[in-house]
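Same chain as my last thread, 57 residues:
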Amino acid sequence: MPEDTWQSIDIIKNKEGEPHVLQQKVEVYGGEHGESTGYTKPTVQHRLVPLTELTKS
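reply #2:
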């Protein structure tokens, strides 16, 4: 069974000028399914995440 993860695609500013990261959901397949290890398949789901949430330390 594939695992789901998010891949960052681009940085976009909202109407207030705050940077957000556009991410696309991808399915990650391992070698036990006959696919090559680390094979990813993009899905149609997208999300916007504030850049500050991804860069918190």
